[in-house]
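Issue 218. Parser rejects a valid record. Input:
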Amino acid sequence: MEPTRITIASRPAGAAPNPAFPLTTLTPMSGLIIPVYLVLVIGGSVGWVRNIIAVAHSDFSHIDGMTVIRVVGIPAAPIGAVVGWISQ
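Output the parser choked on:
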């Protein structure tokens, strides 16, 4: 039994692929796009919030490079998302 393939768009037999729309068939890997995206969005959001909490609990009596990166990571969310997962 062959695996099921879902065709999004079709072209006549023998026609060349359309370079403007190269992916015309869903493959088993297509099902991983949404879960991976959700994991990255949720993980990044949690890291960014953890970064904001770390900055809020800082006393700023000793300012070092990590403190500066954490403060920059508040408006620059991708930086804050990564730094939020780094322990103090």
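Fixed in the parser; the record now loads. The first strand starts at residue 6 and ends at 7.
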